[in-house]
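S1.2 Input.
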Amino acid sequence: MQEEVENRTINLAISTTKLTGRSIVAGVRKYLQHREKIKAHKAKDTKTHGKQTVKELLGQNQGATNVEIDKSGIKDFERLAKKYGVDFAVRKDKSVDPPRYLVFVRAKDADVLDAICKEYQAKAMTKDKRPSVLKQLNKLKALVASIPKKVREKKQERDL
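S1.3 Output.
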């Protein structure tokens, strides 16, 4: 009985004119692809995790919390939600001008949701303190434009 459990046998039928090692490898690959398809199909029947539609999220018969986020912070929130393994859905509310974004979140533990919110707020606060790359670029453009053309050409000639 133990030997039957430990040993598995696969019957593989391959139609070919000449049986080579390549044809056997190709047949085994096709079988493994078939097994992966079956696993994916079974996994599809189970609950999905991560980003979903609001209908899927609320259809799992568990409570969801909504958080309002501005458009620039959606990607940051998605990264944090994936990091903590939380199910979420992003919904755009077009009735208000400018449109606002509601993120519906469902977490198994309230502590996880608190951690995500704290980390998101910390990132949002530090984002304002960082210098703007576009402003720095504009300053450098103005600096280059203020240099006379002859001096710029001489420097380029010397660099060559």
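S1.4 Remarks. The chain has seven helices and three strands.
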